[in-house]
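Why do we care about 3D structure at all? Because function follows from shape, and shape follows, mostly, from sequence. That is the central idea of this module. The next example makes it concrete: a single protein chain, its amino acid sequence, and then its structure expressed as C-alpha cells.
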Amino acid sequence: MPAGGVTTIGILGCGGRMGRMLLQELSGRASLAGGVDSPGSGWIGRDLGTLIGAEPCGLTVGEDADALFSSADVVIDFTVANAVARHAGLAVLHGTALVMGTTGLDTEAEAALHQAATKVPVVRAANMSIGVTLLTMLVEKLALQLTPDRYDIEIVEMHHRHKRDAPSGTALALAEAAARGRGVALDQVQRRSRDGDTGPRPPGEIGIMSLRGGDVVGDHSVIFASDGERFELSHKASSRQIFAQGAITAALWVATRPPGLYSMADVLK
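And the structure:
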C-alpha cells in the first residue's frame, strides 16, 4: 500500500522513446520515484526533468535497477525482453508492483513474470492503449460468432523500422483473443508467413502478418473474410502518448492490488 496514499512510480528505460513519454505523462498524476537507463547510456546522470525539456526535478537518470525497485511503489517496464526476468526478480525482492509493457518474451522471461505474480501484483499487456484493450475484447466476441467454416481471420500489423520483435505483442494478443473466441489453442492454428506454393488456406487458420517501415507507431487490423463479404476492425496509433497514459493508469490501479497477474481489461473493469 503506498504510504500516505501517494503512489510513487519508477521508470525503467527512461531514456528511450517510451520512457521519455512516460516522464511527460507522469507529471501531475503521481510521484516520480526515479528512472534508470541501461549502463553506458548517454543519459546517465542527466536530470529527469531536463531529459524531457522541463524544469530540473532533482532526480537524475541512474543505472541501478535494484535501487529503483527499492524506492518505488510501482515500476513501469518498457525495456528489452532479455532484462524482464531480472526485473521480475527485483520486483519480488523489494515487494514492488510491476507494470510490464515489454514484448517478445522468451520462455524464461514468461516463467519469471508468472512466478513474480504469485508474490506481487503485475499488470502485463502487450499494448497499454485503452482502444486496443477494447478491440481485443471485441475480437474475442466476434470470433465466437463468426465460425471457422465460414470466416477466415487474418491479422496485419505495421510498426516503425526500429521495432525488434515480430509479430508485435499486440498482434499476438489479438490472435490469442481470436483463438479463445473459437475455443482453440493459437499455436495449433496460427500461420505467421506465406511464401511459395502454400496450397489452399485451411479452415480455422489464423494468419498473422508483420510489416516494418518508417516511423509508424503501431497499426493493427483484424480481418474477418468470408465468401461474399469482408470486414475489418482496425486500430491506428499516431502517438506513443496513448501507451504512456494507459501504463500510468495501470500503475496507479495496481499499486493497491493483491499479488496476481492482471491485464488491461482488469484495469478497465
